[in-house]
Amino acid sequence: MDEHEPHHRRRWRPFSGLRNNFLAGLVVVVPIAITMWMIWTFVGWIDSWVLPFVPGAYHPDELINRFFGDKEWFKWIFGEEEVHVNVRGVGVVLFLLFTVLVGWVTKGLIGRSFLHWAEGLVDRMPVVRSLYNGIKQIAETVFAQTETKFDKACLVEYPRKGIWAIAFVSTNAKGEIDQRIPVDEPVISVFLPTTPNPTSGFLLFVPQHSVIMLDMSVEDAAKLVISAGLVYPNPKDPSQPNGIMGK
User: Fold this and answer.
1) Higher pLDDT, 33 or 80
2) pTM of the full predicted structure?
3) Residue 243 has pLDDT above 50, yes or no
4) CA-CA distance, 24 to 28, in Å (whole number)?
5) Taking Cα atoms as reference points, which of 196, 105, 117, 204 lies closest to residue 159?
6) Quick one: angle between helices 16-50 and 90-106, nearest 10?
């Protein structure tokens, strides 16, 4: 044995390249597959909820058989039997059209008057009133194109001084909350989300000097929260390495 020969040789692993390629492929395939599965499942759920309200004569398979069932080319492809198909997305399209129609009607005088009358009836129902008002407030916060949304991400010290957490600025505190907090500066209400589910969290009222505003968007901050700190937004300053925001 040559004394200059190294004592430790690198072990030849014939499947290491195959394994690395497989793992690299998983990084690409798994997010696409899960996203497509979630979209397919969600579309199917909407269809199963909407299509029962559509008369059977207007279902996609009935329309296909009605307009093309007696065509020779159609019989040559599908045979003499009626075609039964499950067209995904029909319920979603109908739901979108119905929702747009409802939104258009409620913007008019008659629609607003009818909605006000219906909400007056709901206000007389003890249990239904609480459920409806709570869901309505959430829907207005999430979907309404007004200022009632999170438009800034920030840092606040939580759960104790010296530990920082990402939060979303809601509004300035108003009314009794603002009057009762003993500080001589504006008080900001912020929502501090939990990880990995940002839909739950804590409502905090913080003095303005204790809030550090961030340049990153609300979407980037939400990604950071959901990923438990693994997905950082792209840096605006190219000198910052690895996508980590510097101070």
Assistant:
1) 33
2) 0.44
3) no
4) 7
5) 204
6) 50
